[in-house]
Amino acid sequence: MDYFLQQLINGLTLGSIYGLIAIGYTMVYGIIGMINFAHGDVFMVSAFSALIAFLVILAVGITAVPLALVMVLIFAMLISSLYGWTVERIAYRPLRGSFRLAPLISAIGMSIVLQNYIQIVQGARVKAIQPVFTGGITLHEGDLFDVRISTIQILIIVTTIVLMTVFSLIVAKTSLGRAQRSCEQDQKMAALLGIDVDRTISLTFVMGAALAAVAGTMFLMYYGVVDFFIGFIAGVKAFTAAVLGGIGSLPGAMLGGLLIGLIEAFWAGYFSSEYKDVAVFAILAIVLIFLPTGLLGKPEVEKV
Amino acid sequence: MTATTKGAQDTPAKPSATAGRPGPAGGIDVAHVLKDAVISALIALGLFGVIMGLKTEQAPGGLVLEENWERVIWAVGIVFVGRLLLNLTIWRRPGGKIDDLMPVGLKKYSGFVGTAIGAALILVALTLPFLPGAGRYHVDLGTLVLTYVMLGWGLNIVVGLAGLLDLGYVAFYAVGAYSYALLATTFDLGFWVCLPLAFILACFWGIILGFPVLRLRGDYLAIVTLAFGEIIRVVLLNWSEFTGGPNGIGQIPRPTFFGLEFSRGEGGFADYFGLDFSSMHRIIFLYYVILVLAFVTHLVSVRLRKLPIGRAWEAMREDEIACRSLGLSIVRTKLTAFAIGAGFGGLAGAFFATRQGFISPESFTFIESALILAIVVLGGMGSQLGVAIAAVVMIGGFEYFREFEQYRMLVFGAMMVLIMVWRPRGLVSARAPSVYLKERKKVGADMVSQGHG
Hints:
Strand content of chain A: under 5%
Low-confidence stretches of chain A: none
Oligomer: heterodimer
Strand order of the largest sheet of chain A: 1-4
Mean pLDDT of chain A: 86
Distance between the termini of chain B: 6 Å
Structural class of chain B: mainly alpha
Number of domains of chain A: 1
Helix content of chain A: over 70%
Mean pLDDT of chain B: 79
């Protein structure tokens, strides 16, 4: 039971990170109907920005942990948003209205560019930092080991809940959210009614990238290591999460992220950690066979 | 088809630049152009400033930052000058459609030009090992290019003809390679016996993948095929007793020429024909093997397009619902497309294993799938010639810049983006329909949807 609880906590933490990245995929897919393949790499770039900001802050000599964390987060979100915006501007906007595979190919190209760019300018080696948060709360003292939730795990889960609430409110209540939802339904009609479609799409990318930056910072703090390749695996898993939850749906992305995190943690905990990716992808395939639009997705109505 | 995609297809592609339009009097709006370049440079400063300027280095006692501002200045400067020059030159033309650069006269003869290029390519391919100046390196490169041409044509059946977006094609390449390697090293079977077996096994795996994805469409299909590719790779990596794990399988036997081995001494190929032994014999032989395999792939896909099943594929690609209404079995159509496409991937994989003599899961990563898909899409989906040209350009260019190890992947990615922005419909964008009523009309590759109906 203790072991189960511990894996549950680990799974929820991992799932929160996946969920935050998955929101970027699902929002972009909802609005322009394409897989933003470079999103995982934007996440990776943001983890590197967070790493650099963290080292700068250490060098400057700021020791108050909450202040440092907020500064790192804001910096990573800024850089990441800029990357998200630029990727959309260079690789996707010229292809709007082109046939469906074109943006996908240019997205794969962009992903290769970002990976190799970071490899060249930051080096291929794994970067490791000392853990920043060491404390934690012991929830239950077991016979073999204690069930613990560490400070960073609490931080990740709380941040995710707060951000999810904020973003759901943005999409539901603000004029930007309304513009996004209208573009999702019919871009031409939205444009006719005076909505700047290009700007709305750009802002969607910026929002997705900002959330990926939060995920990237949390990833850095939680695992303490980054390299130029983390974006691919995290990106594929997060996309799987978005599809599992029903692509285009924000709560779906979060639910999918949590499920993927839990599946991965439990599989690694009870079976074998080598095959955890196989378990994740196999469950994705099984869910899609029975629910082709994901868990919370709207069924696609075919018009003849 | 969903409302989003329909709406998106109706709007014409906008020119990428909004700045640098000719001013009201027809001259250049200098202030505007300068402002645009400065804004671009500032964005570049934001993008590159910290990430390029501060390099994280592992030092004793933790990470340290290494300052490197010079390259930031270079990068920002290049963006500023580049943007300025682009605004002053290329983007000045109103509309700025690069598609129109092709002369009208050439367009008229594009059918003839296509045939001529095709014939020239075949001629070069047939005689490559004996061309003056062609050494071992060129024949090896030719073999590599032909492997990708074959993979491209194989994937073309799935993506180009049947319209099923497959991001995990490399899985079948891996299945073929491992089938041959395992059969040859465990049961001592020869290459020529294993080749059909590899085909059958890969077909079988194609059907295994095909069943669960029968109901999926478009991007859902893409992600499940990607997942399938990763599953195969992870299993190959971790099932050490069976596949050798990360160490792979070595000592894979080489193919024989009707039972003659390419070895020195008694009973070898050179000895039998009374030639002096040369290591080139095997390399040239391998080159012709893949050439024949590629031609077989080409002939089969061209012939299949004329058979009922090929027509069913193309019909399914254009409109799945209409297809079903007319009584075609979607199950059978999709499964045969997956199976046959996979089979050719398997053949190429078996060839890869015998050529390399050593295989490991590292050769079958997602980037390979992306590369093959890029060849198919850049070549123009459904066009056999386009795929061949794209393979030559991409793999050839990739090998040509081997010295720039680090930068060539960067350039490769950038090229993928640029070619897509420049010619979203691929290099050879129109192809003739397989079946027609009165006259042959060109069908643009943009008409090729993904079974969305």
